[in-house]
Write a structure and sequence with these properties.
Distance between the termini: 15 Å
Shape: globular
CATH architecture of the domain at 42-80 and 88-218: Alpha Horseshoe
Structural class: mainly alpha
Radius of gyration: 29 Å
Strand content: under 5%
Helix content: over 70%
Number of strands: 0
Mean pLDDT: 76
Largest sheet: none
């Protein structure tokens, strides 16, 4: 076997180990990830990745191996300095185009998407890249052209936080060159739309491509009358009647309405038809997807042109329900607070919204007595989604009628909370309405204080502990199904197609979980709820895929949400919850160690922040019970996790002085206690030796390996002493005292020097 074939075989084995093998052997997965990172930085990566993508093998290599090869090329194109030095060789463009033509029919859709993203990244960085790409695009099959045209505009609006080597001038040039082709792209899409009527999948792909170009302003130079009558708008509107492409059609229409001020009138003219043909049947069939999409679109129309609605036309009246729910309250509240017009409107509409609140509370009640296996009352998915859609409206109503009136309305009806016979459904829905003002975080301070007082009063008025616990559980029950939907990629692919909407939804969901843990996690009786919340988050399919730095770069928002929640959990939850969550914490720590190597700065920092929090809590537990070794104590559980994960941690974070100092302090402390059998200074020595040994010989200078270990151990011992000194009673208030001692400063210097001296050293693929 020649060298190239051997490298391909080893790459295939590493990718398989990362994605499929060694489910119960995290060290094997970590080793595979380390090997792949080294390959990524090497010059050989160009050759092995392109050879896989153009391989004439029949059948072709496994789909996950091909996906990894395309992803590796994209990362090397985006970050040439951090991934091997130099730009892409000339043959890379040919290989990617050939692969796009081949795998648009043979491979899974995500492979073609990754190849197209690599081509777009290449066009951004090459002189004449856009023109050259469009010139050669005509030779590709139509599915490949569609996908490439879909991702190309995304480079125009892409967040640059994970991107290097592209200055503002180059990105501006790229934008101008891409937009120059907008007319021809619209003609191409028009031709594709004519052939898409009988093909739902093609219909959806054409809409996705149109959405990408609408977001970058492809119609910005078109006269308003021509835009309103454009055949592609008719195509998008007609696609609202196609269930498979409905959600993308809604996004296209919503984006157009929000960008172009003349379109709301054209949409209003179609409102009676939408109501009769789409909305009423969806309401009759309880089709939540259609209802939610139409409400979103109608609210966008109302927000874009409230003056049109105020004219009171037949079309405007057909839109009135959606406007009352979202747009009108928002419009009133955003008016100038000093004007008589706003005050008059607020006074006029307050009774309307007060009545609307009554109706919404009735509609949002649980309408079932079904219980799950744990005995908790179930909230149907449709009701949970309806409640999520109500958040903005409830906040607007609270702001419009005032916090006091809102709370009085919630508490009307004479609750008898001290009794065991109160109506659970009424109590639960009112608790939900109170907590939704709070989650939004944009209420006045006095309103927040009143709502917090009301929630506290409601909980404390329940005298029976078990009933109080059950009330809180039922209050939080709707969060679980909502979070599962938001973070589970298998359940809502449409949400993941829109990064901005996905990020907003994910942040909302995780923020809700932090309400749960920060407010109630420290109370012993709610520990089981917090553990269940952690289990829900950890069991999501998208979380399970965070097993390599490559995936972390693709999902930085998910990494940050997961690690930030884990930090809150370990800081706030009672001891019993920590002990019960040992396996969840170990899994989260392993994933954080891998995520800390991500090139995306936000994801890497979030992962390291969680590991630092984990070590800090572990050290606090060791200081508190250093002479008490109990298998059921949280400190022992955390120490056991570190003992099993320490080698992987050292390999991944050897360039983080803070984490190294915390780890050294913990090992040094355990060395002098009954915990020595779990964790000791010898543990740290073994991990450091293993980390240095795992580095390729070409990465280190001659004799450097033998010098590093004793030098770093001496410095780590001094730094550990500084850290432990900072945690004594006299110094504990200074959070950063440990970095100000001589040992801490020295450690920080040698870590920085090591990173700087090896920043540009090529790291060939290890043998």
């Amino acid at each position: 076997m020649d060298e190239a074939s051997e490298l391909r075989a080893r790459l295939a084995a590493a990718v398989h180990a990362l994605n499929h093998g060694a489910q119960h052997d995290p060290s094997a997965r970590l080793a595979a990830n380390q090997w792949l990172l080294a390959l990524q930085r090497s010059p050989q990566a160009w050759g092995v990745a392109t050879s896989l993508l153009v391989s004439p093998e029949n059948p072709p290599p496994p789909a996950d191996l091909l996906f990894f090869a395309a992803q590796m090329l994209r990362r090397k194109i985006q970050c040439p300095g951090a991934a091997g030095g130099g730009g892409a060789p000339p043959h890379v463009l040919d290989a990617l185009l050939l692969a796009a033509g081949r795998f648009c029919y043979l491979g899974p859709p995500r492979l073609l998407t990754q190849i197209s993203l690599a081509l777009a990244a290449l066009a951004l960085r090459a002189d004449g890249g856009v023109e050259g790409l469009f010139a050669r695009m005509r030779h590709l099959p139509e599915p490949a052209v569609l996908e490439l045209l879909t991702v190309l505009p995304e480079e125009v609006v892409q967040d640059q936080s994970g991107d290097t080597g592209v200055d503002a001038a180059a990105r501006g040039r790229f934008t101008r060159e891409v937009m120059a082709h907008a007319p021809s792209v619209l003609e191409f899409l028009l031709g594709q739309s004519d052939n898409a009527a009988a093909d739902d999948e093609r219909n959806r792909r054409v809409l996705r491509c149109l959405l990408s170009w609408v977001r970058v302003g492809c119609f910005s130079e078109m006269p308003p009358a021509a835009l309103a009558a454009h055949p592609l708008l008719t195509f998008a509107f007609n696609s609202l009647q196609v269930p498979f492409s409905f959600d993308v059609a809604v996004e296209v229409m919503t984006e157009l309405v929000s960008q172009y001020q003349d379109l709301p009138q054209a949409f209003l003219n179609k409102m009676p038809y939408i109501r009769e043909a789409l909305l009423l049947p969806a309401l009759a069939n309880r089709n939540e997807k259609i209802i939610a999409g139409l409400v979103c679109l109608m609210c966008e129309v109302g927000q874009a042109a409230p003056a049109l609605v105020a004219e009171g036309s037949v079309q405007a009246l057909a839109l009135a329900d959606a406007l009352l729910r979202c747009s009108l309250a928002h419009f009133i509240l955003e008016s100038d607070a000093q004007t008589d017009k706003r005050n008059a409107a607020q006074e006029l509409f307050s009774p309307v919204f007060s009545s609307l609140l009554d109706a919404l509370l009735f509609r949002a009640q649980i309408d079932t007595d079904e219980h799950d296996t744990d005995g908790e009352l179930c909230i149907p998915d449709g009701l949970a989604q309806f409640r999520m859609n109500l958040e903005e409206l409830l906040v607007d109503i609270c702001l419009l009628i005032g916090g006091s009136a809102y709370i009085n309305k919630i508490f009307s009806g004479g609750w008898v909370l001290a009794s065991q016979s109160f109506a659970w459904k009424e109590v639960e829905v009112r608790m939900y309405a109170l907590s939704m003002g709070m989650d939004a975080g944009n209420l006045r301070i006095e309103d927040e204080e009143e709502i917090i007082s009301a929630i506290t009063h409601a909980l404390c008025s329940v005298l029976v502990k078990e009933l109080r616990k059950s009330l809180l559980a039922r209050l939080l029950c709707s969060s679980y199904s909502a979070v599962e939907k938001l973070i589970d990629i298998d359940r809502d692919q449409s949400l993941r197609q829109n990064p901005a909407a996905y990020t907003e939804a994910l942040n909302f969901a995780v923020h809700g979980l932090h309400s749960v843990v920060e407010e109630f996690g420290h109370k012993e009786e709610y520990g089981a709820l917090c553990v269940r919340t952690f289990e829900t988050l950890s069991s999501a399919a998208s979380i399970s895929t965070l097993n390599s730095s490559y995936t972390c770069d693709q999902e930085p928002d998910l990494v940050e949400a997961y690690t930030n929640f884990a930090s809150t959990f370990i800081r706030c939850c009672p001891k019993e919850a920590i002990v019960a969550s040992g396996s969840l914490l170990e899994l989260s720590f392993q994933k954080a160690a891998i995520c800390s190597t991500a090139m995306h700065r936000g994801a890497a920092l979030a992962a390291m922040s969680y590991m630092s929090c984990f070590l800090d809590v572990s050290l606090a537990a060791a200081l508190e019970s250093r002479e008490c070794l109990s298998d059921g104590s949280p400190g022992v559980v955390l120490a056991q996790i570190l003992a099993r994960c320490g080698e992987g941690l050292m390999s991944n974070v050897h360039k983080s002085a803070t984490i190294l100092q915390q780890l050294a302090a913990l090992c040094s402390l355990c060395e002098r206690t009954t915990w020595k059998g779990i964790l000791s200074w010898d543990s740290l020595c073994r991990w450091l030796q293993a980390a240095v040994k795992s580095m390729p010989s070409e990465y280190l200078r001659q004799g450097e390996a033998e010098m590093i270990i004793p030098l770093w151990l001496n410095v780590l011992r001094d730094a550990a002493s500084d850290y432990l000194h900072s945690r004594t009673a006299d110094n504990v208030r200074n959070d950063h005292a440990y970095m100000q001692g001589k040992g801490g400063r020295t450690l920080k210097r040698i870590v920085r020097d090591f990173a700087e001296s090896h920043r540009n050293v090529p790291m060939p693929c290890p043998s």
